[in-house]
Amino acid sequence: MKDPEPAEYGEAPMAREATQLMLAAKSGDRAAFDQLVESLRGRAFHLAHALVGSRDDAMELCQDAFLKVYKARASFREGEAFLPWFHRILRNTCFSHLRSQGRLRPRSVSERAPGADEDEPDYDIVDGARGPGAGLEADERLAAFQGAFQKLSARDREILTLRHHEEASYKEIAKTLGIPEGTVMSRLFHARKRLRVALEARFADPIGELTPDDDGGGGE
After folding, report:
1. What angle do CA 92, 95, 97 make, to 5 degrees?
2. 20/179 Cα distance (integer angstroms)
3. Domain 103-220 adopts which CATH fold?
């Protein structure tokens, strides 16, 4: 049995390392901050790209988010996990960008699909740019997936990206989003279901090849 991990650094080694690097950066270690950015650059890009749709915008928003982190480094508290803190900054940066373009529309409770949570806001995103590779990607299956993905709400995109692009565990997602693991399972189940509905007109079973675990979301 492995040794218990300090609660303040979360469960995953990457989460502990990110927090330690941020604490070092807070103490004035610029090299630690550069290492932090390098280790999280890909993760941040995937999420930003999933939300805003444009590769160029996603890259710029990631840079903006890291700059905000650096400027706010003094406010990062000892004992706080870094990844959830950073996730909130990145998500808010993306949402601010979408709002400035008139592309973010709050969903009322009555508009939410069956199974959607009612405990926090959700948003529709009006896509101003087509997804990664659109117009260049000849594969019809991938193009259909990208189109269906962009029909999902901001919260569905976020949790599917964390699970299937970042390959985060349920525990990691729960910590990042500040929700119980059971809520993570429920959100994933319904997000995948809505993605299937968007795809089923063209493919009989499209999502089976796209999600490594089943809809039941059994534990990690």
Report:
1. 110
2. 23
3. Arc Repressor Mutant, subunit A (1.10.10)
Label residue 139 by pLDDT band (50, 70, 90). low
- The answer to whether residues 143 and 137 touch, using CB atoms and an 8 Å cutoff, is yes
How far apart CA 59 and CA 65 sit, in angstroms, is 10
Phi, psi of 47 (to 5 degrees): -70, -45
Provide the token pair at 109. 């409770």
Pick the CATH number of 1-101 from 1.10.1740.10, 3.30.70.20, 1.10.630.10, 3.30.70.260: 1.10.1740.10
Cα pseudo-dihedral 45, 48, 52, 57, rounded to 10: -50
pLDDT tens digits, one per residue of 73-88: 999 999 999 999 999 9
Structure tokens at 159: 């949790």
